[in-house]
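Worked example 3 (structure in, sequence out).
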């Protein structure tokens, strides 16, 4: 049995006097799928930001892959709206030191090749989410962290998301629609 890719013990997070997370434990193997559920305001997004190395816990211990081995997609696709998809992914490819050929492959895979030279500001929310998925996969991360990934995706976009989730890697998903992911999940963490 391989060691866990993610190991978090007793995680806590406070914002001033407000406690958001208390004593959260997570161990996820390299091929595990953690499903995180709960109502708005329960701490799901805070936990995901910690597990994506975007925020630091205020309590507990945490062992994660290096930041460059993690892919994160939150409520915002984290792309530049004044740029085109091609410009966005070329920029991220340079930052991650990824071959530029991967940019074209991902744009084609996610149905954005024809719109590669259009400004992202003209895209629907679903097309922006697809571009966010391209950005997420660009550097072939070992750990994928997704916060409400089905947001604004049409049927074809959902199929593309499913194909991403079929690839062998560790995945953490926070969602209000757990039924869609239950069959994939190897672990579940429910916030009250």
């Amino acid at each position: 049995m391989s060691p866990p890719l993610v190991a978090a013990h007793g995680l806590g997070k406070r914002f001033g006097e407000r406690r958001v997370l208390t004593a959260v434990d997570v161990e996820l193997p390299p091929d595990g799928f953690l499903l995180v559920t709960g109502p708005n305001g329960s701490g799901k997004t805070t936990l995901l930001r910690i597990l994506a190395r975007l925020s630091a816990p205020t309590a507990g211990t945490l062992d994660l892959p290096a930041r460059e081995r993690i892919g994160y997609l939150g409520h915002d696709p984290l792309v530049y709206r004044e740029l085109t998809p091609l410009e966005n992914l070329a920029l991220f490819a340079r930052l991650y030191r990824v071959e530029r050929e991967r940019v074209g492959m991902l744009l084609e895979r996610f149905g954005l090749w024809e719109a590669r030279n259009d400004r992202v500001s003209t895209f629907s929310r679903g097309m922006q989410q697809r571009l966010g998925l391209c950005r997420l996969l660009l550097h072939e991360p070992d750990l994928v962290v997704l916060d409400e990934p089905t947001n604004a995706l049409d049927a074809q976009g959902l199929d593309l998301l499913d194909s991403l989730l079929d690839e062998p890697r560790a995945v953490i998903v926070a969602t209000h629609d757990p039924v869609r992911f239950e069959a994939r999940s190897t672990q579940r963490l429910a916030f009250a």
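Notes: The chain has a mean pLDDT of 96. The two ends are 32 Å apart (CA to CA).
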